[in-house]
């Protein structure tokens, strides 16, 4: 796909998300709309070929879970990352396109073969929802690529990741300095790299401060997406389980879900309970407070990743590296000083 989804959307008067669903044959788009998108894409591809276009292409493969629906904010974050990577790629004279890969459902090998047929120069793998079995398809892949948001300990390419440990410890330290010792970590049901790293950082901090006697004893599995986290917190409160002075939430979905449940049951944030969450809250979420949160610099991660990928494409590097992009603490009004 040499044409950007946003350009197709603008030309056809559709949303970028609708175009992406149509191109990747996902549900949620009627057949007439899907046909319009595919016909337009085919015509633009034919124009490129007839013009003898030989553009240098970097492809972003975005791995997603096979969910019945995707939160609109998750799609937005994927496209924000893509746009930042695209701007960086243009500085080097490359164009970018985006292909979503549904893990556990799509044939990864077929997508990699398509990269070869399309003469793609390099691949940016957005691997947050990728697992080690998925990565096996890349072991003999000849096109230069970099992996983001995963660490498969592969010595043949670069891994660019968020510094989850630094972010979690920074958030917990802020709670600690505000007098909080009774802290629980509310996690979702996902078991991917970023989540493992955040839980490990929480355990280390709590053990170092002498706030827990065994690993994971203060980690609560509250549910998957926003609705599941809300329902899980509702049950947690109804079962009269321990309410701490502070909660560290694993991602923005958990933050939104537990906040709504707490408020629904008469708890005030931060008067009754303080919250620090990993990830900024999407603008689409209407919150009654300004969350204190760990800001994951996804745009910076994309910027660094494309730089390393271009160096690999041009043959300027032989070594493989792991790069950790630090996070920032955004202080809101969700933490009370005890």
TrEMBL record:
Pfam family for this entry, one: Peripla_BP_3
Keyword DNA-binding among record annotations: yes
Assigned keywords, A-Z: DNA-binding, Transcription, Transcription regulation
Tagged with keyword Transcription regulation: yes
Stored PROSITE patterns: HTH_LACI_2 (PS50932)
Signal peptide bounds: none
Domain HTH lacI-type: 3-39
GO function term, MF aspect, one: DNA-binding transcription factor activity
PANTHER family in UniProt: LACI-RELATED TRANSCRIPTIONAL REPRESSOR, TRANSCRIPTION REGULATOR, MEMBER OF GALR FAMILY
Protein name in UniProt: Putative galacturonate locus repressor
Source species: Robinsoniella peoriensis
Lineage: Bacteria, Bacillati, Bacillota, Clostridia, Lachnospirales
Gene designation per UniProt: exuR_1
């Amino acid at each position: 796909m040499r044409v950007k989804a946003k350009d197709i959307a603008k030309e056809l008067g559709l949303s970028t998300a609708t175009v992406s669903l149509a191109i990747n044959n996902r549900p949620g788009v009627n057949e007439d709309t899907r046909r319009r998108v595919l016909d337009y894409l085919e015509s633009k591809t034919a124009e490129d070929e007839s013009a003898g276009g030989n553009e240098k292409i970097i492809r972003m493969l975005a791995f997603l879970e096979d969910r019945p629906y995707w939160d609109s904010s998750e799609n937005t974050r994927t496209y924000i990352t893509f746009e930042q990577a695209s701007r960086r790629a243009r500085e080097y004279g490359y164009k970018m396109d985006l292909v979503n890969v549904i893990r556990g459902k799509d044939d990864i090998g077929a997508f990699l073969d398509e990269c070869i047929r399309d003469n793609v120069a390099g691949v940016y793998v957005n691997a947050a929802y990728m697992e080690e079995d998925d990565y096996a398809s890349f072991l003999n892949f000849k096109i230069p690529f970099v992996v983001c948001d995963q660490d498969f300990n592969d010595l043949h390419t670069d891994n660019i990741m968020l510094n989850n440990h630094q972010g979690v410890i920074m958030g917990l330290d802020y709670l600690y300095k505000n007098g909080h010792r009774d802290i629980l970590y509310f996690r979702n049901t996902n078991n991917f790299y970023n989540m493992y790293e955040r839980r490990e950082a929480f355990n280390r901090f709590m053990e170092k401060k002498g706030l827990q006697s065994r690993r994971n004893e203060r980690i609560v599995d509250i549910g998957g997406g926003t609705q599941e986290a809300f329902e899980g917190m509702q049950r947690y409160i109804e079962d009269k389980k321990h309410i701490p002075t502070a909660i560290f939430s694993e991602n923005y979905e958990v933050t939104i879900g537990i906040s709504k449940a707490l408020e629904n049951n008469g708890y005030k944030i931060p008067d009754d309970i303080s919250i620090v969450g990993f990830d900024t809250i999407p603008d689409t979420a209407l919150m009654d407070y300004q969350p204190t949160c760990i800001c994951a610099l996804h745009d910076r991660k994309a910027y660094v990743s494309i730089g390393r990928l271009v160096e690999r494409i041009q043959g300027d590097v032989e070594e493989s590296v792991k790069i950790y992009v630090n996070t920032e603490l955004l202080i809101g009004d969700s933490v009370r000083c005890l």
